[in-house]
Amino acid sequence: MSQRSIAQTVGRSFINAEGPFEAALRGWKRTWNKPTFRSAHLGRVLRYTDGTEFTGVTVALGLIPSNAKDTCIGAVYRVSEDDLGRLDRREQGYERIDVSTHVSWAEKQESAHVITYVPRPEISAQLQTALSANASVVVMKNYLEIIKDGFRELGEAALDQYQATTPKPPWPVEHLTWTETNARAVPTAT
Question: What is the pTM of this model?
């Protein structure tokens, strides 16, 4: 998660002592398993660059347990309980889990409590249902850029590690933008 993305979610900036810290999560790997359906975003729609509404499913990365040799590099932030509440609201469809014993970073204190979010199994299963129904499934280009920005903040080595350990999107990558559905139409001259 990039500094800009987490700051937008929790409503504040982070000082250096709060992260991001480059960390390694052992025994987990990334996969494309978190679908998002239009119904999850009431009041706004996704549109292609030509203005056409996108009515399919977007997919994001999620974590799944793996063997002990797999390691995901990522960012750790020091957050408050209020911050966690805001993150929980943002990460709907994900389950908050404790990974304290699987995470390491240079400044980690023994008492550190570390959580991450993983897609809930019933949400991941909805992706298979959508694929079986021949729904249009894409990965949003700006989502990929936000992820890469977060890894760039950790350094080029972290970005390289992310790219080496993360599968390429198995669906088309599309440039989509959000549009508020309650926006008033503006008359145009003809």
Answer: 0.85
